[in-house]
Amino acid sequence: MKYRNIIKKLVSESGTTNSEKLCKFLGIKIYYTKMNFMGFIVKINKVIHIFINSALSKIIKDIVILHELGHYFLHPIDDYLLMKDKFLFTENRIENEANSFAITAFNFLNNSYDYISENDLKILKKLKTYV
Predict the structure, then answer these.
(1) Which among 12, 110, 4, 98 is positioned nearest to 50, based on CA atoms?
(2) What SS3 state is found at 48?
(3) How far is Cα 41 from Cα 4, in angstroms, rounded to an integer?
(4) Among residues 4, 25, 78, 111, which one has the fewest Cβ atoms lying within 10 Å of its Cβ?
């Protein structure tokens, strides 16, 4: 898998497979708030911040965090990048790379969830096409 070595190294160095703890290890701040899109990553005063829609399910919050980490590792964060509902599955190269990173990381981290909705399963199935 394309991004497996980055993820493996991160997990090895951080000692965790939890997406929030991976961000903490990297010095990335996470904020949960109500908004009209899934999430975005921004650099403010040299600090990386990820904003996540608080209304998302736990599994999709993790996917969005991993998607934004894909941007962190693969793309310069000089401005902000939005992950709107419509942008999750787009023909945009940058978003597709972040999706590929997210599903690779998600499969590698293998976290368990108490509940996965039908909508969550549809999103995961669609994301698997990016591997």
Answers:
(1) 98
(2) strand
(3) 21
(4) 78
In angstroms, rounded to a whole number, what is the distance separating the alpha carbons of residues 67 and 15?
A: 20
Q: What is the dihedral of CA 71, 72, 73, 77, to 10 degrees?
A: 90
Give the chain's mean pLDDT: 87
What's the rounded mean pLDDT across residues 47-58?
95
CA 76 and chain centroid, separation: 15
For the beta carbon of residue 113, count every other beta carbon within 10 angstroms. 11
> What is the predicted pLDDT for the residue at 92?
78
The DSSP result for 60-126, as a single string, is HHHHHHHHHHHHHHHS--SS-EEE-GGGSS-S-HHHHHHHHHHHHHHHHH----S---HHHHHHHHH
pTM over 0.90: no
d(CA 119, CA 131): 20
Counting every residue written for the chain, the total comes to 131
